[in-house]
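Record 1 of the preview.
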Amino acid sequence: MTAPPPPSSPSPPSSPSPPDMPDGLVRSVHERAERSRRADREGEPSFGQQLAQVGVLGWMVVTPALLLLFLGRWLDRRLGSGIFWSAPLLMLGVSLGCWTAWRWVRRGVR
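->
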C-alpha cells in the first residue's frame, strides 16, 4: 500500500491583480495618474484662464435660464396666465444650466 500524499498547505491569499479589481477602481487610478502627469507637464492655469472658465460657467447657467424664461413670458402673454409658465420654465432653465455646467466641469477635471 502506498502512503497518501502529504496535505498541501493552503496558499496565502494574494492581493487582487489588476484584472480582478473592479473596473471603476482601475479606471479611477489611471485617470488620477494621467491628471497628475498633465498637471506636471502643463502647470497651473493662468489667472486669465481661470477667469475665462468662470465666465464660461456663468454663461452656461444663464443662457438656458434666460431662453426658457423668455419662452415662459411669451407663453404667459399669449395665454394670459400670469407667471404660470415663466416660473417653472425659469427653474427648469437654471437646473438645465447647472447640470450642463456640472458636466463640463467634471469632463475638464478628468
